[in-house]
Please model this.
Amino acid sequence: MIHRGFGALGRFPCTVPGFLVILVSGLTLGLANARASEESPGFDPMLDEIVVQGSRVATTVLETPAAIGVVDLEEIQLARPQLTLGESLGRIPGVFTQNDQNFAQDLRISIRGFGARARFGLRGVKLIVDGIPATLPDGQGQLDTLQLSTAGRIEVIRGPSSSLYGSAAGGVIRVESQAIGEGRHAEGRVGFGDYGYRSYDAKATVREGSVGVLVGLSHQEVEGYREHSRMENTMLNSRIEWQVDEDSELTGILNFVDAPIADDPGGLKEAEVQADRRQAAPNNLKFDAGEDLKQVTTGLRYRRRSGDKHETTAAAWYGWRDFANRLPIPPVGVSGGLGRTFAGASVQHEYQDEFFGLANSLLVGFDAEGQWDDRTRTSAGARTLDQAEDVTSLRVFVRDELALPRDFALTFSLGFDNLRYRLDDHLAPGGGAPDASGRVDFNEWSPAVSFRWNPQQALNPYLRISTSFEPPTTTEFRNPAGGGFNPNLQAQRAINYEAGVKGLLSGRLRYAFALYHIKTSDELIPYEIDDETYFRNAGRTERTGFEAMLTAQLWDGVELTTSYTYSSAEFTDYVLENGAKNLAGNQLPGVPENTFYAELLYLHPSGFFAGIEARAVGAFYADDANTVRTEAYGTLDLRMGWKAEVGAWRITPYVSASNITDTVYNDNVRLNASFGRYYEPAAGLEIQGGLGIAYSFE
Model:
């Protein structure tokens, strides 16, 4: 595939030294600017230290011995379409997103290459929204219920994290709704743009005494760049906070989504892309491929502090999902249905005290989760699949951090997971086929240890060794030989060795560097047979990477953010099941060797704002055999507007332009696709605009 980019980014040489020069230059300029600012009269630090929950307890970014990135409210909401998380995550090194424009398949998010295997939804990455898991016990994560118009913060923990979070090979994404301020506030926004983009949302926050409420309602429609790629959804997200007393608080959430239309245009062959980038795959049109869904999620979280030493957090959640899809499988197409119920509860307790005169923090916890699925498939009026799929998960975990002399600290965590999969085949009694019912159990210990040094804000190095355990999801367990579980499929395991350093210089420059090496056994790899996706295990894989991120306040109101990722991921032991090929030495598909991001954002005191973003993605392979390779590409986006304050009103007109260089590239590359249908082309230049109106009741 040939891609057209802009300047150096379009050619994208993909050399580590070249980007190291960029990063070192940026750091040098930032240091010089920080010193100059600090020496100037009236210096006012612009960047503050950030408190995160990545270790399941509140710590600062600098005191967290792991690679962690944070995206704030303005980066999520300001003049953005608010359609997918991919709009906000591009700035985080180690994170690669695809499939922003196919809403039937959802955004594909990979962290350090884990998650690239997902055909739909989220795999290999734990998603938590307002403290409630949006990832199911078997590891499936759903992004189609996430309302970005009320999201105020995103934390991304990179690297295997099973000791604290269970099935989390690539890391953890935590999304928090925006803060509920004092008083009463209401806000609405309308957005319009190319390819039938329409967005309407309204939200309100109220805080009266000890109670705070957030309610957001949104409706979005997209006709899509390609034929047969329409989407429509309506979402409600609400949160209520009750400060029970000085030491305890109760939070309740309710989320509802109704997405009646999400068409799937499918993957194209290279010749089809060259002939017409906007066409849909023939069978996807013929069989009206797509999906519709409804989902409700409810949850409660209670937190109580007992003096200065104890804090307990308990949570419980419940939800259901009604899902139907249409698959483009000849000769007549296939209709699928899923009725899902999911629920869970967790308790954790933190105890802080001294241990032989040294500060110590001990965290212990317990999680229990379950999902109960009724899955069906119908073809030509005949039921071809009818089974119940139940997964239950029990896990316990412990984390202890001991502060050592001279600003050192040692952290150890350990998790134990027990997962049980049960499948009941309802077709067997009357269908004449063998009974595919069965059961699979997994038990796994996941340790992690880290060592950090925090002598000052400017210098915070750390070392980390962490592990992950990730069983197949229920859909990945499908047996290519027939019904039931695939008996040849194993859980994948990984161990991560990581060294990093981060710091905050004079309040004007924040930096973070991480170097890692990950060894994985039995990695889960997707492949297709007649447009059906199945999975197999690769014997062993290895990943080596470098991640860097800089955020600098160049002048008051002017912020520069850059990030760079180098990743080398290869099979070290991978013999296909038939023994015909040994793919050891090949690169893992779907993992670009280099990615680069830069944004220059200007916020003027008058309310005017403007931001320009550049992204560059290096080449990567689309198949295990490394016979199909994509080309590097670069894109450039622009957003601007004005926040006009008129008394209690705030009026925000805005306009945004994505891919202003009209770069030709693919929004998604399907891995190991059957019939050579690897490519889902991306749109060229897109213009969007809108108007936001907010009012504060005083």
Observations:
- The radius of gyration is 25 Å.
- The chain has a mean pLDDT of 89.
